[in-house]
Amino acid sequence: MMRWITLALVLGCATPAAAQQQATPAPAARAEAALDAGKPKEAIAIAEQAIKENGSDAHAWFVLARARQANGDMKGAIAAGHSATEFAAVRASAFYNLACAYALSGNKDDAFRALQGAKLAGFADRDLMAKDADLASLRSDPRFVLPMERNYFTLKLKSGQELAYSVDLPAGFDPRKAHPVLVAPGHGRKVDGNWGGLFWGEDTAQRGWITVETASFLSEEPIHSTHELFDDLAKRYRVAGGKFHLACYGPTSGPAFGIAIGAPTRVASLWALPGFPTTDKEADLKKLVGIKVTFIVGDRDPYWYQETTIAHDRLKRLGVECYLEVVPGAGHLLQEMFGGEFAKRLDLMRGTP
């Protein structure tokens, strides 16, 4: 089954408005509309024209692959699919559709390679993989492994309130071994159609990470509730180095920095995609010394770019080990960090090739 996962569906805390601001470019949207209307040839023509005008139109490549497959051109679908996988914003679904095309063509080896690429890029729709007719020829093969199921917990806080959080365990999880643990904003509860943030999830799981999504960052007491969450996680899992890694974006970034400042000995790294501390008190910011802080921001995100660069320079002056990555042409929703790109940076930070 050819599938395009929408931003609003997958991104744990993204709002429909945020997704709408990063809408599919008009030509690709027209091609997709034609395809959905059962007109693959028309969709192919529109997508091919869009690519002629802009060879970097990721969504046009993605729709072209789908349309060619719908039109029975598997060779053409595979060629376009490979091109689509070059773009982070569509990589996970593009690899998945490529696996479908290879499976339907009878090429199991390349189908499994594409499936692994999809997982590394963050594709974790377990139900779809288990039922998709396009993958029927692969299911009897021992290489066919579904993504791990998410684990859901409810923590009773000292305040009496309940905190929901979800956990994605790494592939081949061994409870006897220590794993790096990423704590990031998210629902924490089961939501139909949602299988993790686009910045993390199956892509981190394939690289040996435990990923935790929680609503604690935006709770009434984000610092206290997240510190209690740390305690609960430390009881359940062996945490590498005894320290956690934090990821945040937008309004969750202020609380995330507050959490790190409140317990600097328990935090190994903090990733803002984008984000910055909401305090400028040097006494507080100096507590981040010993924590690796990485700012990632798009150069087309004026307010966040300005505040991020100011925060980076301030922390540098205070002796904090921090890094700044400015993504050319990127807006507020950093699609350039989808498709396993953020997971790769996490591994670089911890010294994993």
Q: Which strand-content bin applies to the residues?
A: 5-15%
Number of strands: 8
How far apart the termini lie comes to 34 Å
Helix content: 40-55%
Question: What structural category arises from helix and sheet content?
Answer: alpha/beta
Under CATH, the homologous superfamily of the largest domain reads Alpha/Beta hydrolase fold, catalytic domain
Q: What low-confidence regions span 5 or more consecutive residues with pLDDT below 50?
A: 2-23
CATH top-level class of the largest domain: Alpha Beta
Determine the number of helices (DSSP H or I, runs of at least 4 residues): 15
| Widest β-sheet, arrangement of strands | 1-2-4-3-5-6-7-8
Order of helical and strand elements: HHHHHHHHHEEEHEHEHEHEHEH
| Global shape | globular
Q: Please indicate the count of domains.
A: 2
What CATH calls the topology of the largest domain is Rossmann fold
Characterize the largest beta sheet: strand count, sense, and whether it forms a barrel: 8 strands, mixed
Explain what this protein looks like in three dimensions.
The longest helix has 16 residues, at 302-317. The protein has helices spanning 7-10, 16-21, 26-36, 40-53, 58-70, 74-84, 91-104, 108-120, 126-131, 202-205, 222-236, 253-262, 282-285, 302-317, 341-349; strands at residues 151-156, 162-168, 181-185, 210-214, 244-248, 267-272, 292-298, 322-327. With 353 residues, the protein is α/β, with parallel strands linked by helices. The protein folds into two domains: 26-138, Serine Threonine Protein Phosphatase 5, Tetratricopeptide repeat; 151-349, Alpha/Beta hydrolase fold, catalytic domain (Rossmann fold, 3-Layer(aba) Sandwich), CATH 3.40.50.1820. Strands 1-2-4-3-5-6-7-8 form an eight-stranded mixed β-sheet. Residues 2-23 have low confidence and may be disordered.
